[in-house]
Amino acid sequence: MPSYRFLMLNPKDNVATALDNIPAGSVIKIACQHKEYEIKVRQNIEFGHKFAVVPIKKGEDILKYGEVIGVASSDIAEGEYVHIHNVEGKRGRGDKENGNRSILGV
Amino acid sequence: METAQFWGYRRPDGRVGVRNHVLILPTIVCATQAARQVTELVHGTVSFIHQHGCAQVGIDYEQTFRTYVGMGTNPNVYGVVVMGLGCETHQGRSVAQEIAKSGKPVELVSIQDHGGTLGAIAEAARIATKMVQDASALVREPFDISELIVGTECGGSDACSGLSANPAVGYVSDMIVDRGGTVMLAETTELIGAEHLLANRAVNDRVAKRVYEVIEAMEKRAIMMGVDIRTGNPSPGNRKGGLTTLEEKSLGAAAKAGTRPLQELIDYAERPTKKGLVWMDTPGHDIEQLTGMVAGGAQVVLFTSGRGTPTGSPIAPVIKIATNTPMFEKMRENMDVNAGTIIEGKESLESVGRRIFDELLLTASGKLTKSEILKQNDFGIWRIGPTF
Questions:
Q1: With contact defined as beta carbons under 8 Å apart, do B59 and B32 qualify?
Q2: Is the dihedral of CA B46, B50, B53, B57 positive or negative?
Q3: What is the complex's ipTM, to 2 decimals?
Q4: What is the spatial distance between Cα B265 and Cα B213, in angstroms, rounded to a whole number?
Q5: B191 in contact with A at a CB cutoff of 8 Å?
Q6: Residue B343: which of A19, A91, A97 has the nearest Cβ?
Q7: Which residues of chain A neighbour B192 with C-beta distances below 8 Å?
Q8: Nearest to A101 among B226, B245, B306 (CB)
Q9: How many domains does chain A contain in total?
């Protein structure tokens, strides 16, 4: 089985970053300090993009670098692709405070 | 710790330049084309195109004025020919008088006082020719790195920015600060979500409070406009590169600041009063923040990029650092250093940091960067008020 490179930066994180193009169905083992995961990646993950290392519920914070980078906008399964389709930024969001005037459709 | 030296030019105000430009400084949009034509006539001169200098009021007027004066007094500039029109709000005379306080040669040419465009170009070119010849007679001397203000910037970021080039620049930031130099952090927008990490490193409560104030002011601008900040930041290219939110981008951007204490927080285009790590309040917009840092006295800029960018300054060499090898290979003619070796597992952060540090000293001593060779003379002022 080919091995793919990825990075989980902090044991608090619930996402990891792919450092190769990881095809759907790949099973990868992740160790970050005392935490260990074995995950089946559910979609193709492009170089530089993220996938969930644990199940994340809608409304839960997304953590990378051990810090909050946004909030899940839908339930995210373990091994699922994590990006703008299921994560929203929390900061500077005038559209949120003014009734969802997003023009991005995300 | 070993010291570090570079070869530069001492200016009358005591500051040290790493370039020896004669600047044709248009203080008003109406003079920019004439100024550009002077640079085409006279070797050794630089200028820039902009849309400002008239009908600006209050703090917006002051910020533009400060930016013009800062560009003219940047130590990389030997002398300045200010080009005005005559009837504008930002009078060339006032800008020239302020620059003259630095002791460097300054002359004023106003288009309405010199018989129009052709007369003004001829007069400015004659003055510039003399200045270039005088400038060219100067010889570089060795100086300690403590004489440098190094601007840092990331543009066209990707997921690798926070993993390779930015932490490598952070390593260089610490090296510069430890040797008595100054490093400028900017891009307030792109520190939203990482402000607590920097506030914790502030030298005192006043600086920490300022950190939260500038972040809040920037965030409020988006909130008051009622817009989704993601339409501007992260950009489409950032998102394609794997960055999902502004907070994620910010945490990567903050890595450029290394680990040393935050000494002060200065306004746009202001000169630092402290050595060490300082933060200039600028937007994330590459050209506007680059202009602010150079106007604040930065002689060299370290600029990391994941997607690739040609951006440069007419006055300060900008060293381009690629965050990933595929982009470095694709855009070799724009990029100076590759930090993608960190992602490939071929090189450590420290090793890349040392390569960037060596490149910084070489560049400060005269080695041209790709953006200089390609004459990428970008300039953009952060407008903070309407025009009347």
A1: no
A2: negative
A3: 0.92
A4: 10
A5: no
A6: A19
A7: 91-92
A8: B226
A9: 1
Helix (H, G, I), strand (E, B) or coil at B359: helix
The answer as to whether B345 is a domain residue is: yes
In three-state secondary structure terms, B381 is: coil
Q: Which residues of B touch A88 (CB under 8 A)?
A: 245
Q: Which residues of A touch B218 (CB under 8 A)?
A: 92
CB distance B227–A17 less than 8 Å? no
Size of interface A-B (CB pairs under 8 A): 108
Range of the domain at A57: 6-89
User: Count of domains in chain B?
Assistant: 2
Domain containing A61 — which CATH number?
2.30.130.110
Regarding pTM above 0.90, the answer is yes
Tokens of A32: 């970050």
Whole-Å CA distances, B239 to A14, A83, B232, B325: 19, 8, 11, 19
- How confident is the prediction along chain B (388 residues), in pLDDT tens digits per residue? 778 999 999 999 999 999 999 999 999 999 999 999 999 999 999 999 999 999 999 999 999 999 999 999 999 999 999 999 999 999 999 999 999 999 999 999 999 999 999 999 999 999 999 999 999 999 999 999 999 999 999 999 999 999 999 999 999 999 999 999 999 999 999 999 999 999 999 999 999 999 999 999 999 988 888 887 877 788 899 999 999 999 999 999 999 999 999 999 999 999 999 999 999 999 999 999 999 999 999 999 999 999 999 999 999 999 999 999 999 999 999 999 999 999 999 999 999 999 999 999 999 999 999 999 999 999 999 999 989 8
Q: Which residues pair with B202 in a beta bridge?
A: B262
B385 within some domain? no
- Domain with B250 in it: 144-374
Distance CA B130, CA B114 (A): 19
Please provide the size of chain B in residues: 388
Q: Classify B216 as helix, strand or coil.
A: helix
| Domain co-membership, B205 together with B60 | no
